[in-house]
Structures are given as C-alpha cells and as structure tokens.
Amino acid sequence: MAFFNFHKNTFKHGIHPPESKGETNGMSIKQFPFPPVIILPMAQHIGAPSQIIVREGQEVHRGQLLAKAEGYVSVPLHAPVSGTIRKIANVPTISGKMSPGIFLETFPFSTQEVLEGKPIDLDTATPEDILQGIQGAGIVGLGGAAFPTHVKLKIPDGKKCETLIINGIECEPYLTTDHRVMLEQEHDIFTGIKYLLKATGTQKVIIGIEANKQDAANHLKKHIPKGMPVSVQVLPVKYPQGAEKMLVTSILGKEIPSGKLPIEVGVVVVNVATTAEIGRLLPHGQGIQERVITIAGPGVKKKGNYTIPIGTPLRFVLEQVGVDEEISEVYMGGPMMGVAVSNLNISIVKGTSGILVFTKKDVNRIPKIYPCIKCGACLDACPILLNPSKLGILAKFEAYNEMASDFNLMDCFECGSCTYVCPSHIPLVQYFRLAKRIIRKREANKKEEVDA
Amino acid sequence: MLKKTLDISSSPHIVKGRSTDEIMKNVVWALLPVVFFSIYSFGLNALLVILTATFASIITEHFLCKISKKETTVRDYSAVITGLLLGLSLPPSFPLWMTFVGGVIGIALGKYIFGGLGYNVFNPALVARAVLQAAFPVAITTWHPAFISNRFSTVSESVFTWPFMEPQYDAVSGATPLSAFKFDGITTSITELAFGQISGSTGETCAIIIALGGIYLIARNMMSWRIPVAVLLSAFLLSGVLYLLNSELYPSPVFMLLSGGLMLGAVFMATDMVSSPITPLGLWIYGCIIGILTIVIRIWGGLSEGVMYSILLANAISPHIDSLIKNRVYGTKRKIKAT
User: Which chain A residue lies closest to B116 (C-alpha atoms)?
Assistant: First the structure.
C-alpha cells in the first residue's frame, strides 16, 4: 500500500518472503572436517581469474600462496589446507563453465597450522598498505557477489567517503551466517572496521542489521570499542534490503545514481563477514582459507553454520551433513538469488554464503504459467521501481533493445521480487537475465565493429 | 550415496504461494454471499438466472478451447466469475434463453477473441450485459419485486420464455430505487438500500454484503483497494456537491452510493485486473472516471443507471491512462513511460 507508506527507514517496495531462519540462527559456528581433496577453481571472484604459481607434485602449507592476482581487479588464492598438489586441470564451476583449477590432496595427519605472513600493522600502515593487504589476503565480498573488496575501498580522486556502512542485513531467507558471525566474531568485526576506517579515511560507521537479528544488534552495541565512531541501526525486515542500493537508501535516504557505485553519494558498503575476515587476517598477514556457510533447507539432516575450507567439494559437504533420499535441487546462496547446482562435483568458493537442499516436494515446481493478468503485484514489489509486467511482455516479443532504452532494464539487479510475487508464475527474472545478456553481447559486438 | 542427477531452475527458488487461479477462486468465494442473498431475496428466479449465466460461460469457454485445440482454461475460474457477474447484473425475471446468449457473448466476444484470460480489453460480463441491453431493452429493464411470498415455490413465467419469443411478465413488477427516483421522484430509505430490501438486478441489491466481499478480497491482497475507493469517493463527492447545490433536484450522495449497481460495479466489475490500469496513479484516475461518469449518466442521461457504460468506457481507455503516466526509476532523474 504505497499510498500510506512514507518510506521511513526503508526503501520503496520490496517483499516479505518467509524468513525460514529459525532452524539455524541459534546454532553456533562449527568447524567442518577437512575433505581428502580440495578442488580450487581459479575463477571464483568477479574480475580476472587468479594465476597459478605452484606445480603438480609440490607440497604446500596451509595459507601458502597458490595463485597470484592477475591485475588490479583480481585477488590471489591461498592453500585452504596443507597438502600435495595432485593435479592442475580444468575444474567445473557453478556457472557450468570450466575454469583452470588446482586439486590439492590434504595431508591426513597434519595439524593444519596456518602459515603466518607479513602482518599489516594498523598503527603504521598507510591506506594504500591496507588496500594491498586486503587484496593480498584474497578478500572478496563474502555476501555472495565476490567482488574484490580492495577495489571497492579505493576512493576515486575527488570523492570522499563520508559514511562506511557495514552490511549485516542478510535478507535472504534461510541464511544465518552473518547473524552468527555478528554474535560470535565481534572482535574481528571491530578490528576490521578499524582497518576499513583507515583505508577509506571515513569518520562514521553505521552497522545495518534487520530487526530479526535484534540479539546480534544488541551484542554488537555492547561491544563497540571506546571512542569508535560506530552506530548500530536496526531496520525493518524486508527483502532485498541487503542489496547495496537498497541499504544505502534505507539508512541514509539517498539513492545511488543508476550505473554508479555507492561512493557517488559518499558511501562505501562492506559486508559484515568480509569485515570480520579483514579483522582476522590482516593482523597476521594471512590469506583467506575458509568461510562460514549456512547449510539448511528441508532436505538436510545436520543443519547448521559451519566454517568450511574454500574448495571443499559440494559432494563431500553433503555426505558429511547427510541429505534426504529425495533430494531434488541444491542451491548455492539463498533461495531468492542463489544458483541451482547442476552437478555435485563443484566446490565451495569464497562467495558461497549458503548451501540449501530442497527435496522434490519442497521445490515449488510451477505446473502452469498463466498469462499476465495485469494485477500490478510486480510493480509494487520492484525495489528499483521498474515495470516488470511490461518488461516481461516485451521480452516475449524479444524487444530487448526497447526494454533497455525505454524501460531501464539494465537497472534491474535480478533480486527476483517480481517473480516471487507473480500470481501467474511468469519467470520474469529469467527473461530479464537473458535480455541483459543479449543486450551486453550486442553492445560488445557493436564496439568490435567500431574498433574494426 | 548421493543421487547422480539434480534438477536445476532459475532463481528465485521460492514463490509466494498465491497463484492466478487462487485469486480467481477467492473472487468466487467473495461473490457467493452476494449470490446467496440474491437467491434469498428473489428466490428461484435469481437461482435460475445465475446458474444459466454461469453454465453458459463455462460451456462456451470449454467449447472454444476445444475447437481451437487448446487445453481447456475452465479451471482457472475466470469464466465462472464472468458467468456469476453476468447473472448478478441481470433482472431476476430475465428470460433464461437471453441469459444463455449473454453468457456465450461475454466469453466469446468479450474475452476469447481478444486472446483469452489476460488479454481482454473489456470486462467480459459487462460486454455481455451491454449486448443484452441493446438487444432486449424491455426485458432488461423490467424489474421483479423482491421478497414476494411464493418466491421459493414458483418461477416467473417470463423466465421460461421460448427463444425468440416475447417474454410475458406477471402483473406486478417493481421499480428500482434509481428508476423510481429518476422517473417518479420517489426516494428509497438508506437502510432499505443498505440491507437490500429493494428491487433491482439479482446481485446489486444488498450494498453491505457486496462491500464485505470487497473488504475480504482487499484484506487478502487480491484486489486493488484503489479502484473501489476511487469510484465510490468520486461518485460521493460529485453527487455530494450537487446535493449541496440543490437538494430538491438531486438525490443524496449516500443514496447514490448504495443504489443501483454502483457498489457491485465498483467492487467486483471495475476491479477486473486485466481490463483496469496497472499503475497506482492510473488506478485512481480510472476509478474517478467511473465514479464521475456514473453520476453524470444517472442524473443527466436518459438511463436511470450508468455504471455499466462508465466501466466499459473506462476499460477502453485504461491502457491509455497507463501510457500517460511516467515513472521515475530508482537512481535516475529521467522519467520513463510506465507502460
């Protein structure tokens, strides 16, 4: 009911899917067993894949550099376990594409001590040192996007970061990793914030948390170090508030201009788990070897939050936690934006925030797509204020260029709210993904023609 | 051992449980009290008219799907709604063969030739009623009194008129509050209107039951609240201004709201999602057009009732209402066409 909504403390529109967090939000983080073999794809972040610097047969120590960053928008990869490099070959990734990768066989009786590196001292380091340290640690956005964090923290000339927002929203149903991290790793979070403040030259930090994690908000509030310019803001629960654009609007009431980054309005947004990782790794100069993942969904037996080494094969994970016989779909990430896994031979990557297992009867397989009845539910859901109904009709006629030029298709960030609410079960987001892809391809082709 | 094959699908992997047929089903539930009251006040006549209209709609939809070799779309309940609404908008003693023709026309010309559910420009039930009004002007304005004592035991002679024959009416025939006011200057009391102690189309007489159906659908978020509010508010305001100017000549705004088909039209007919605009502002404009036109036709037109034509006209321009509206997309200054 937009008419009575004065948009206080929140963004426009959005949806309220069932939260489904109750099963795991009370379960503290547990260490997951080391798999016998780690499979590490090099393409596990946005940007150029890492470059392998080890050879087959080499013995590596946990935390040792395996692959270096290829250029600026890229990060290195570290050994998640101590072991032997068995093979360097192409490995499957979630997108279905193959990526160069490393098969690392774990030493069976190793203590799995992590190699210490060159610490980044908070007092003496320059902002540039910290950014290099963050890149050197292989840190990417752990919320799911896996965008290299140092790139985001680099303030462009002429811009100033006035507010640093720590994203503890976790609006995806089922996922509770950020929730548990906030409850259990407050020390790392605040250390991380110190690094981030120095790196960006910011004076003000706001930690945004949704009201369904009030305990985490209280916990963090209690532990704010003396003199630190941090405030915790509890926001009403609404999907997709965890999206950068929506979060900035919810907290500051500002809109990020189309196609621009939050720094355009003087804001940098960093995920809370990423912040904790920075606070944990930088004082020791170590690289990222593992991450916290929620394993949940109706098809899982031992649900919970686990610290799992990067590169752990999905098959091993599911065998350890036990899954239902009738397992039908496995998602990496949340149910709204997560990707359905086509084969269990892929492995955990840095951006994996959750593993959800659904059985046949839980999957809402839509029996029938009805025509659009113009109910307008998608217009009331779209946080970017697009008209998904019209875009869907245009997509059917393959009017992709018109979708982009007249109806701002490229502003869609594929949150899935329109598809979620559509009573006719029209796979709108799927259409939009396809349309965006085709438009990008056409633009690239055009550019090539011009260059030639 | 883990299964070898997995299913894959595009995100989001969860959907809101509500589907189009469920919305349609709920509209049917919301209409049922109206149907029951109609049978209660007009007896077997109303029952037969409503059943015939619904039956004709369902049969036509099924038949058209069959001859175009498509899976039948009867199960989406939209044909049931068309049939019920048509039945509820006809006089209680309306000949059944005419009712049947109406049901066929509503689905075939009002909906199917446009492409079926989701593509109809007009509310199919009103298309049917407009054709019937043009073809059978006497039968559709001959009103049967409510609450006659033998209504559950006998059926009016006119109901069973042979096709293409002139219907014979019983000696007593009632006037609707609107026609009584327009042609004889008689006003009906508000309580009689609210509780349906009056004559009129089978389903339009009890304003309160209709409003409750609407509140149910709005509460379940299955209907736009903006349309009925805009229709009723604009009709109320216009007739209120007129009433203040000359209370001798013009009826009170409350009378205007509760009489005739305004409540039924505002709640169940103007709110047809397919034939109404999609943008929130568009819904307001659309609703106000219906409300104002209804009052204009009622007061200055040759007919005593104007809801049907107002809605049909607003249906016709609803895509154009949307195309006048511009939206600002998040993070942009540019205003783009809403549709």
Answer: A371
